[in-house]
Amino acid sequence: MENLEEQNELTLDYDQLKILANRTSNWRERLAAVEELGKLEDNQQVVDVLTHRMNNDSVFTIQEAAYRALRKLGEDVQMPAKKKGDPFKGSNKILLRIKKSLPKDHSLEEFGEKFKKMRIDMYDTYEGQKGDEFAKWLEDTWNALTIR
């Protein structure tokens, strides 16, 4: 009976972690979920989720964490190459549309809030990729967006 309860708890943990690992709106939750999945018992479901995050996550930090977790589980995987360039096609157009949707005298903070509200997926990816440089990148990007 006790073994069955433990197995149900593990399944529940896996199910919750799988959902968190695949949330596109929060890179910190994805990172924590990937790290926790790496602590679970080695099974194909865990390996599949970690492999997907390693190969497909838009934030390299999460790809690295998934790689380390897979290696710890004994998987023979290669570290993914860090992708260069912009992760979103047409991002400048999207950001310009956001800027244009605000009053002419809007602040950087208002731009950042609207960006986060309208495109949490992009906001989250850039925040995860840029790390400590995100605020500067956001300000530089905001300043560079010109409205005709």
Layout: helices, strands, pairs:
Elements: H1 2-21, H2 27-37, H3 44-56, H4 60-72, H5 91-100, H6 108-118, H7 120-130, H8 134-144
Helix pairs in contact: 1-2, 2-4, 3-4, 6-7
Care to give the gist of this entry?
The protein is an all-alpha fold and 148 residues long. Helix content is 68%, strand content 0%.
- Give helix % range: 55-70%
- Taken as a percent bin, the fraction of beta residues is under 5%
Order of helices and strands: HHHHHHHH
- How would a textbook summarize the main sheet? none
Identify the overall geometry: elongated
Number of strands: 0
- The domain count comes to 2
The secondary-structure class comes to mainly alpha
Terminus-to-terminus distance = 70 Å
Number of helices: 8
The whole-number mean of residue pLDDT values reads 89
Extract low-pLDDT stretches. Answer: 1-10
Rounded to an integer in angstroms, the radius of gyration calculated over CA atoms is 19 Å
Walkthrough of the structure:
- The relative contact order is 0.11.
- The model is unreliable at 1-10 (pLDDT under 50).
- It is built from eight helices and no strands.
- The N and C termini lie far apart (70 Å).
- It is an all-alpha fold.
- 68% of the residues lie in helices and 0% in strands.
- The radius of gyration is 19 Å and the shape is elongated.
- The chain folds into two domains: 2-72; 91-144, no CATH class.
- The protein has helices spanning 2-21, 27-37, 44-56, 60-72, 91-100, 108-118, 120-130, 134-144.
